[in-house]
């Protein structure tokens, strides 16, 4: 009898140094690990991120013995960054681009790691799955003769970022600095037009000479030259985005493999959500999940507004004040994850002076608002029946978590592709109302109140909830399997197709 364990090869995974990206990659690694327990997965990052990943890997209910962690040396001080800055969630906004540029210096160490793996195992890894931002990984993959796949968030937001960055359609070609107020985005349908106000704030000033544009154009071009893409999305909910992304990728495959969320969320079994919520992020919450659930249990169904701007985003101090006043005027119950305003150090202690005088005391007394410092158990909150809407920065992880639970969104995008995610949910899906665009946008308490009431009361809110519920069903169906392990959902079939294609490739050296 042959007792030798099957060997399905080796996959290298390499996310960008941002918590949202690392969270998505870790979820993908665990998903692949479950479906192919005999495939080795090496998860690559810098030392401080690896330390956090060790916590996230060991705190869940499932053991993933086939996932190992590999460190690449990185000294933030060498790049003019604050000490111990290896993740965007620990950086003030003015340093984000500096970390992005510095991440390209990881290439020699990454090349050495791949060479060492090949020498030790006497074979080439089946593939490298790299962040869409790390286009330079393509050169490494070509050098050693392996496949390079890019892992990206939503299709629509990615396709928009790629097309706008590559072609700068909001700029005139006459050398002037004039902007085109309304323009067509290349690769999207001819009738599809955007206004300048719908672009992410930082993209509006972009020119072909801007350092960020030059950097991203190079990385995007390399990524589009990869052997295919893995998209953390669902075929049935992102029709336009996937059609456009496949046009950009020409004949190469784009696999939809999402949403990469805890299975208990998608199966209605939520008793273990708090365990998975911590293991998904590796973060310590500012409130225990039990306390949060107890507070939600005392609220009426769909009556609570959840407010969070993600792991590295913040609104300005004046806007924080207006948001608080608008919340109070609306009279809605809410959970608000508080982080220092964008003008202040994100790691500093939150000060009550950033909120209206007496606001904290009034919320505590009325029990209308639950104020949480730094981190909240987001999965537990969004999956609770009392949560009726989510005021979000529209980062893709948060977007999928909300849509998977049928929770409509109030959009306040603050960076990256978030403005496009918000736009898609509003115009393509009908499950979002935009409140503002950018941390410095002028927002009044009256406007905050109006949008909250629009989404949580009246006919528009009811229509949004119906559409969000339909999308939640499509998301759940995409990850569903028939009894006996036979795949049913489109995303499950897609990830198995991807794994079949890469595990059939073994190159011995």
From TrEMBL:
The keyword Glycosyltransferase applies. Residues 11-261 form the Glycosyltransferase N-terminal domain. Signal peptide: none annotated. GO terms for molecular function: UDP-glucosyltransferase activity. InterPro entries: Glyco_transf_N, UDP_glucos_trans, UDP_glycos_trans_CS. Its EC number is 2.4.1.-. It is an enzyme of class 2 (transferase). SUPFAM superfamilies: UDP-Glycosyltransferase/glycogen phosphorylase (SSF53756). Keywords: Glycosyltransferase, Transferase. Belongs to the UDP-glycosyltransferase family. This is Glycosyltransferase.
């Amino acid at each position: 009898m042959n007792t030798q364990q099957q060997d399905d090869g080796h996959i290298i995974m390499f996310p960008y140094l941002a918590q949202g990206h690392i969270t998505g990659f870790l979820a993908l690694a665990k998903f692949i690990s479950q479906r192919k327990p005999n495939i080795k997965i090496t998860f690559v990052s810098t030392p401080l991120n690896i330390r956090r990943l060790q916590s996230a890997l060991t705190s869940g209910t499932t053991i993933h013995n086939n996932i190992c962690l590999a460190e690449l040396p990185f000294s933030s001080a060498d790049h003019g960054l604050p000490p111990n800055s290896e993740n965007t969630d620990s950086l003030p906004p003015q340093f984000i681009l500096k970390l992005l540029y510095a991440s390209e210096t990881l290439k020699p160490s990454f090349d050495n790691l791949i060479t060492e793996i090949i020498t030790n195992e006497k074979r080439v890894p089946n593939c490298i799955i790299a962040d869409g931002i790390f286009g330079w990984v393509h050169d490494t993959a070509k050098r050693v003769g392996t496949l390079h796949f890019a892992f990206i968030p939503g299709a629509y937001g990615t396709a928009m970022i790629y097309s706008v960055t590559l072609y700068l359609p909001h700029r005139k070609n006459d050398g002037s600095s004039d902007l085109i107020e309304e323009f067509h985005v290349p690769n999207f349908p001819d009738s599809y037009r955007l206004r300048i106000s719908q672009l992410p704030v930082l993209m509006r000033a972009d020119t072909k000479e801007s350092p960020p544009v030059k950097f991203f154009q190079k990385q995007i071009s390399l990524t589009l030259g990869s052997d295919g893409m893995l998209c953390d999305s669902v075929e049935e909910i992102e029709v336009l985005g996937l059609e456009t992304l496949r046009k950009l990728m020409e004949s190469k495959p784009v696999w939809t493999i999402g949403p990469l969320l805890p299975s208990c969320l998608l199966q209605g079994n939520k008793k273990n959500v708090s365990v998975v919520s911590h293991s998904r992020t590796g973060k310590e919450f500012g409130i225990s999940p039990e306390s949060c659930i107890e507070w939600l249990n005392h609220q009426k169904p769909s009556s609570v507004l959840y407010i969070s701007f993600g792991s590295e985003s913040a609104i300005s101090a004046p806007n924080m004040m207006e948001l608080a006043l608008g919340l109070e005027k609306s009279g809605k119950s809410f959970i608000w994850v508080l982080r220092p305003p964008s003008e202040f150090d994100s790691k500093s202690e939150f000060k009550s002076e950033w909120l209206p005088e007496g606001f904290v005391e009034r919320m505590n007394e009325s029990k209308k608002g639950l104020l949480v410092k730094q981190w909240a158990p987001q999965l537990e909150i969004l999956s609770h029946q009392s949560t009726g809407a989510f005021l979000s920065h529209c980062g893709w992880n948060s977007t999928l978590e909300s849509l998977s639970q049928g929770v409509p969104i109030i959009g306040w995008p603050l960076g990256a592709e978030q403005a496009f995610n918000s736009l898609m949910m509003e115009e393509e899906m009908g499950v979002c109302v935009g409140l503002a665009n950018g941390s410095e946008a002028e927002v009044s308490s009256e406007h905050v109140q109006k949008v909250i009431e629009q989404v949580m009361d009246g006919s528009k809110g009811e229509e949004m909830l119906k559409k969000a519920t339909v999308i939640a069903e499509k998301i759940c169906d995409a990850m569903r399997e028939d009894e006996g392990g036979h795949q049913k959902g489109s995303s499950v079939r897609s990830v198995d197709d991807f794994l079949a294609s890469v595990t059939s490739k073994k190159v011995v050296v």
